[in-house]
Amino acid sequence: MKRVLIYGDSNTFGTGPMAALKDDTTLPRGARWGDVLGADLGLGVEVVTEGLPGRTTVHDDPVEGAYRNGLRPLRAILESHKPLDLLIICLGTNDAKNRFGLNATDIALGVARLVREAKALDVTDKILVICPPAVQERGDLAAIFEGAEARSKALPEAMERFAGENGASYFDAGQVISVDPIDGVHWNATSHTKLGHAIAPVIRALLG
Questions:
Q1: Residue 83: cis peptide before it, omega within 30 degrees of 0
Q2: Which uninterrupted H or E stretch holds 206?
Q3: CATH (domain of 80)
């Protein structure tokens, strides 16, 4: 059996659109894009999802905690699930928060750092970078993501460039789905389903 690991944030975890910061909605098992992908790929492929709400690429979060830094636990998580046939990295949304002051190139370089770190561990030689859809400044999350809408526009180009330069494949989720307008950050169940189905043939091709 082949094993695929998805390394992501709240949208991999399954956090639903939040009308208010206090909301704690989570999509049910089976409805999240990793689950949809796994069902499409069938019994010959195990899809492992490692989604942490608030996870950044390589940055300690001064508000939500250093453990949100995606670089810190990367080695432990990869080695916990080896052997891996494919690593999928779907991060970058939280890097767009105003508190980090990053532009699209900085965010893409954070993902590229994770790609290099994963390759250095020799856990898998196949890595797919998924660029998340553009953030919209909406609702209770608008202030936290102030300026992110503009920064997100340049992210697909930057992420594709640096993924390729570091030997990773690339997929632009923004060509398939968009964020839910309730909070401008999270994906609704329909988007999870669309992405899971859309990415399945890409994964099949990468797995051979």
A1: yes
A2: helix 189-207
A3: 3.40.50.1110
Phi, psi of 201 (to 5 degrees): -65, -30
Residue labelled with tokens 């999802």: 49
Instruction: Write down the residue that tokens 């936290």 correspond to.
Output: 144
CA distance linking residue 71 with residue 110, whole number of Å: 9
pLDDT bracket for residue 21 (50, 70, 90): confident
d(CA 178, CA 136): 9
Instruction: Show the DSSP H helices in 122-186 as ranges.
Output: 148-153, 155-165
How many angstroms from the chain centroid is the CA of residue 90? Answer: 2
Which residue range(s) make up the domain with 22?
2-207
The Cα 202–Cα 208 span in angstroms is 10
Mean pLDDT, rounded, of the chain: 97
Burial of 150 by CB count in 10 Å (0-12 exposed, 13-18 middle, 19+ buried)? middle
Render pLDDT for 150-199 as a digit per residue (tens, 0 to 9). 989 999 999 999 999 999 999 999 999 999 999 999 999 999 999 999 99
Number of residues in the chain: 208
Report pTM: 0.97
Q: Which spans in the chain are helix H?
A: 10-13, 33-41, 74-81, 104-121, 148-153, 155-165, 189-207
What residue type is 129 in one-letter code? V
Number of folded domains that form the chain: 1
Element (H, E) at 169: strand 169-172
